[in-house]
Specification:
The structure holds two protein chains of two kinds. Chain A is α+β, with helices and mostly antiparallel strands. Chain A contains 16 helices and 20 strands. Helices cover 31% and strands 20% of the residues of chain B. Chain B has six helices and six strands; from the N terminus they run ααβαβαβαββαβ. Chain B has helices at 4-18, 21-24, 51-60, 73-86, 97-107, 158-168, and strands at residues 39-45, 65-68, 90-96, 112-122, 128-133, 195-202. In chain B, a hairpin with a 5-residue loop joins strand 4 (112-122) and strand 5 (128-133). In chain B, helix 1 (4-18) runs antiparallel to helix 6 and helix 3 packs across helix 6 (158-168). Chain B is globular, with a radius of gyration of 16 Å. The chains are: A alpha+beta, B alpha/beta. The A-B interface holds A 27-28, 30, 32-35, 37-38, 40, 42, 58, 60, 62, 88, 106, 108-109, 111, 128, 132, 135-136, 152-154, 360, 363-364, 369, 375-378, 380-386, 388, 390, 392-393, 449 and B 69-74, 76-78, 81-82, 96-99, 101-102, 105-106, 108-109, 174-175, 177-181, 184, 192-193, 205-207, 209-211.
């Protein structure tokens, strides 16, 4: 049996587990070594090392009332809890707690789809509802609504949105936290709070109007440890009449500057509704020594163009799509082409066209499922390629940059040089507009099942965080092992934001029982111990 | 529980296995006092080498075949998960490593664990090497636990033997302490990505975390 949580004796822990069993049923309390092993972070950068964050146990409630009872018990024992939704946030820590020795509060059994309104285009779900679950529900009930799915689609709507993940469809839906409307939260004192219009017990607009009245409190429950979210509403996209998937390529390295400027202008004007990803088929993460040399030196534009021409590929490729009636989609695409035509050598292609609804067979045949709100596990397919490195997982290094071509080029150069310091191949270059105005750069950093390689990966990640923060680029989301380092880069006012976080924590969760350490927000008793 | 249908199928499979001299040493003549879970489906990825041979072998023994096209999301969402919500069952397959990783991870929510996996690596001369791993092959059982390369002289009937193993082996083995990712076969210069045949089955020691 795992060790008890810090601060609890074996006897206290045993008593706590027994009482948890009285709340949820003993079959839903998991405390053997085999049980707890299921909550390890499969992509941990500390696999098998003393610092690996592991759970002491797990408990799986089935209702808000059970969550309240667990919270009350946790307060009595000062038992640290770590709520998870589906626990599949693999590159950002998965189901392992931020504070080692916590009891995972596994909310997967709370997997009810409480309401879907085709008329209002909204839904209300519990934390265990996955994108697969909701998509299946919409299909089975022939509802002409789309979800916006994370990639891979095996995660939960609530978990992904609370960690501020993003998707691929229209702008109102693909910033997953922004697409939520109303939540229900169990606080550390056992109170149940409903935010927005839900604070009116008779509200008809809980999933329609976000703000309610007074301070808009929802934000403090994202990327934090101020409460346990037990319900969340989301806006859903009406199924369009048609979708047109397109791709734009440009030949030159610096063509990315006018490319991104034009694409973002079109996005902000709602001409291009979907997520846009700008990636380089040339700077593609290949271990080609010449490519590595170019990326890690101050190569001239001529050197780059000689290399690119030799490969017969465009330097940049940007897929995106349009949704709506056929004539409107056609007009949007024509206008987009007109606006981009001034880039010499620009090429346009149409990569897919769909009229809805699709049959099950047609759905299976769709290549870019995420752009049509269809959850998939296609992303894992990239591990099948013959060039895939034999590492066991990866972390996502995901800084936000301004959506400008020159910044994408600059960060690609900065991070490539950092990779070279660690004798590692610079990864592919791509910038994605998951969120409305910031561009997310994703760089996978491999993780292993051995300490030596993991140490190198951790040191690389830390150098990337620091190098990018020095240039004004900070992450939007990060693995728990790096949350302290990354939150330190948000240090305006000599750490005033951190002090505010701690003030809120002390007020809302004085015993520090919920997700201690998440995003570097530690409860008072653990801050005092550390000091 | 061992029912007559599974027993008969197992016996036929064992007979087929025993007839192949290189593999006979690996399998006992009986699996007394073992638990079997009904095999819900055999999953094959049509994109990978030898998938057709696996599909034919699975259909030949009457197993429900589910064919995927590189992405297990659809069959998980529409076929496997809905079934597992109602019936404890085993699933087997022949897929790439990432698919096995995904299904193993997802199936844990329904109390399924890895019974075994066999890595198959095709050499440039077309022959295959096979490496066995998983709790089925522990020293405590009459089957061997080690990575071992079967002789390259094994003929192409290895697909049939892998299917036969999936439907005939017991599933009541203790799960390993850690969830190991699919390991790459120690084959020199594989001609294509390593593929895996595998079996996931319910085990009472593995908690189900979805209601």
């Amino acid at each position: 049996m795992p060790n008890p949580p810090p601060g609890l004796s074996d006897r206290e822990f045993s008593n706590a587990l027994s009482q948890l069993g009285e709340i949820v049923g003993s079959e839903w309390v998991f405390s053997s070594d085999e049980d707890v092993a299921l909550y390890r972070d499969a992509y941990s950068p500390l696999w098998g090392e003393a610092e690996e964050r592991v759970a002491a146990a797990a408990v799986a409630p089935d209702s808000v009332e059970e969550v309240q009872a667990i919270v009350k018990l946790a307060n009595e024992y000062q038992l640290p809890l770590y709520p998870i939704s589906t626990g599949r946030n693999l590159t950002y820590g998965g189901s392992a707690p931020a504070y080692s020795g916590s009891v995972v509060l596994d909310l997967k059994r709370m997997n009810r789809i409480l309401n879907v309104s085709e008329r209002d285009k909204t839904c209300l779900v519990e934390p265990g509802v996955s994108y697969f679950d909701l998509y299946r529900y919409l299909r089975q009930n022939s509802l002409r609504l789309w979800i916006d799915t994370a990639d891979p689609g095996w995660g939960g709507l609530i978990g992904n949105s609370l960690d501020r993940g993003g998707g691929y469809t229209a702008s109102e839906y693909r910033d997953h936290f922004d697409a939520h409307c109303g939540m229900e939260v169990v606080l550390a004192n056992g109170d149940i709070v409903r935010t927005g219009m839900g604070a009116n017990p008779k509200s008809r607009t809980w999933q329609l109007f976000k703000y309610g009245m007074g301070p808009w409190i929802d934000g403090i429950f994202s990327q934090s440890n101020y409460g346990i979210v037990t319900k969340m509403g989301f806006w859903l996209m009406e199924e369009p009449e048609t979708t047109l998937l397109v791709n734009v390529t440009v030949p030159g390295r610096e063509d990315v500057i006018p490319l991104i400027d034009t694409l973002t202008s079109l996005m902000y004007a709602n001409i291009i509704p979907s997520q846009v990803n700008v990636a380089s088929p040339i700077m593609n993460g290949s271990p080609d020594p010449e490519l590595v040399r170019l990326r890690t030196s101050d190569a001239s534009e001529q050197d780059w163009m000689r290399y690119a021409e030799g490969r017969g590929q465009p330097f940049w490729s940007a897929p995106f799509c349009f949704y709506g009636p056929r004539d409107i989609v056609a007009a949007q695409w024509e206008h987009t082409k007109d606006r981009l035509a001034s880039i010499p050598g620009v090429q346009f292609s149409e990569t897919g066209s769909y009229t809805f609804p699709l049959s099950d067979e047609e759905v299976e045949a769709v290549g870019a499922k995420n752009r049509l709100g269809i959850p998939s596990l296609n992303l894992f397919g990239s591990r099948n390629s013959p060039d895939a490195q034999p590492s066991e997982g990866h972390l996502d290094f995901s800084p936000i940059i301004a959506p400008r071509g020159e910044e994408l080029l600059e960060i690609a150069s900065v991070t490539a040089k950092v990779h070279a310091e660690f004798d590692m191949i610079p990864p592919f270059v791509s910038g994605s507009m998951f969120h409305p105005r910031g561009m997310t750069v994703f760089e996978p950093i491999p993780t292993y099942r051995n300490a030596v390689d993991n140490r190198r990966s951790r040191e690389l990640f830390e150098r990337l965080v620091i190098s990018c923060a020095e240039r004004g680029w900070t992450e939007y989301r990060v693995h728990p092992h790096f949350q302290h380092l990354t939150m330190e880069t948000y240090n305006f006012g000599n750490g005033s934001l951190q002090r505010l976080h701690e003030t809120l924590k002390d007020a809302i969760d004085p015993r520090g029982i919920i997700s201690a350490g998440r995003y570097d927000i530690w409860p008072k008793h653990l801050r005092e111990e550390d000091a | 529980m061992l029912n007559r249908r599974i027993f008969l199928r197992s016996s036929a499979a064992l007979t087929a296995l025993a007839s192949h001299s290189s593999l006979a040493a690996w399998f006992p003549t009986t699996f007394a006092n073992s638990t079997y879970h009904p095999l819900h489906a055999f999953i094959v990825d049509r994109n990978i080498v030898s998938s057709a041979a696996f599909a034919i072998a699975a259909q030949r023994v009457g197993t429900t075949l589910q064919v995927m096209d590189g992405d297990p999301g659809g069959i998980w969402m529409h076929e496997i998960e809905p079934y597992l919500k109602k019936h404890p069952a085993a699933i087997a397959g022949y897929t790439g490593g990432p698919t096995l990783f995904c299904l193993e991870f997802l199936a844990r929510d329904y109390g399924l664990h890895l019974v075994y996996r066999i890595a198959h690596s095709q050499r440039k001369d077309g022959s295959f090497e096979h490496a066995f791993s998983g709790p089925l092959f522990s020293e405590q059982l009459p089957l061997k636990q080690r990575s071992e390369k079967l002789a390259a002289t094994i003929d192409n009937s290895w697909c049939e033997h892998a299917v036969a193993l999936a439907i005939s082996c017991p599933t009541d083995v203790a799960m390993t302490e850690t969830v190991e990712p699919p390991t790459l076969c120690d084959a020199a210069e594989p001609a294509s990505p390593v593929t895996y045949s595998w079996l996931l089955a319910p085990n009472m020691t593995v908690p189900k975390t979805r209601g």
